[in-house]
Amino acid sequence: MNDTTKVTRVAVLDLYNDAPNQGMRNIKEIITNKNHTLGVAMEYDIFNVRGKEEVPHIEDYDIFISSGGPGSPFEGEGKAWEEKYFHWLESLWHFNQNCESKNGKNLTTHKKHAFFICHSFQMICRFFNIGKVCLRKSVSFGVFPTHLTEEGTQDLIFEGLHDPFYMVDNRNWQVIEPDMAKLKSLGAEILALEKMRPHIDLERALMTIRFSPEIFATQFHPEADPIGMISYLKDETKKQEIIEIHGQEKYDEMVDRLDDEDKIVLTHRTILPNFLQNAIRQLNLEPVNV
Prior knowledge:
This protein is of the alpha/beta class. Helices cover about 35% and strands about 25% of the residues.
C-alpha cells in the first residue's frame, strides 16, 4: 500500500460486556475478508462499550459496526456506558443530518455508515422509541426463516438472498408494535419480520430496519457462521436447553442446516458484506491494490 492510499476506518463497538462470544470473531473476519475482496484498505479499532465505557469519536471513522451482546437491553439504564453509547448514537444521527447539501454544496466530506446487530438493534430501537422493547415468552435460539417486507425485497442489502432467507437468532428480547408515524418521521423502513407463525396468536417481531440510507439494523446475527454455531450447539448446557424447549428433532434440524449453502452460509456471505460494499461505494472511495 502506498502513502497516497485512502484508508477506510471502521470502529467496532463491542457490547458483549467481556462475555465469551463468536460475534466479534465473525465481525473482524468479515471486515478482513471484505478488505481483500474489494481491494480497499480498511483498518478497524475495537471499543469495549460495556466493559470499559469506550465509544469512538464520530469524526475519526467512516463506518461503525455495533455488536450483539448478552442480557437485557435495559440493564444499562443509569450507567455511564449507556449514557456514552446513546450520546454517540445521537452524535452519529446529527452528524449525518448536518451532511445534507445546501445550495449544491456538501457541508462535510461524507456521511457515516453504521450497522447494528441484535443487542444493538434493541438499543437503537430504544433510543428512537420506535416500538415496544420487551421480553419474549420464550428464548429464540437457532436457525430460522425470516421474511422480507415489500421494502426489503427492493433493498440492496439483501441482494443475493432468497425470501424467506435463513438467519441465526439468539435472544430473549424483541421489538414489536412499531410506531409507524415515528418511523416515517425518521425516514426509516421495516425490511424484515419474524417468521410466520399462524398457529400462535402473537405479534411478529421486527427483524430488520433501515433507519436511513447509511444506518441499518438487524435483530438477528447476520455475521454468524457455521463454526460459531457448532460451538454453541455442541455446548452441553445449550444443547439440553434447546432440546427441552424445541425437542430433539428441532435440535437435529438446526445442526443439519449449518452447512447448507443456501441458509446461514449464504446470509453470512451476503448481508454484512453487502453493507460494507455499499458503504464503500457511497463513501466514493476507489478500490485500490493493497
